[in-house]
User: What shape does this take?
Amino acid sequence: MISQKVTIVNQAGLHAKPASLFVQTANQFSSDIYITKGSTRVNAKSIMGVMILAVQKGDEILIEVSGDDEEAAMNKLVDLITRKFDLPDE
Assistant: This one.
């Protein structure tokens, strides 16, 4: 298992479109993927779980990945966040 803390930098946080893109990306991998914000830990492959976290710009989340493709999954998810989900800031 690997884990990494990441700060959300896009304007919308992990709401609506960014959350959907995150979940879609997580589902491309066979590894188990979880996101933790504060004391709440959710399955990153569940849109409802990700939305429950109410992650906003500037929030720090912990991504945990465990499985055969864990490194590729972590790299892709962190890159997605770093690129601000390729969405224009409002």
